[in-house]
Design brief:
Largest sheet: none
Helix content: over 70%
Number of strands: 0
Shape: elongated
Strand content: under 5%
Length: 108
Amino acid sequence: MHPLAPILCATLPAVACAATHYLPWRHWFRRGRLPRLLAYSTGLLSILLPATVAAWLAAHTVTDVLALLWLAAFSAATGTLLPWWFDWQRLNEYAAQDAEDQAATYGE
């Protein structure tokens, strides 16, 4: 297998999923969110396109193809879960800071 194939399958899906998490969708859609079908389609394409290109150009066996597909799927999952975790951490920090500010302002 070509050495760039795993790099392609490990980076592109994660970057695509993380980037689409932070795009300002409210400017393009009426409800301010990406429609569910479009979100799933974007996520699926971010997995399948790099894996297909890498498998087509670099894989020699079926095992290589499966490894590249699973690597792309794991990478996309990581690129999805890390922004969610980061947003959750930031939300908890802000909630704790708000509670401290309220306690300082209004007393216990």
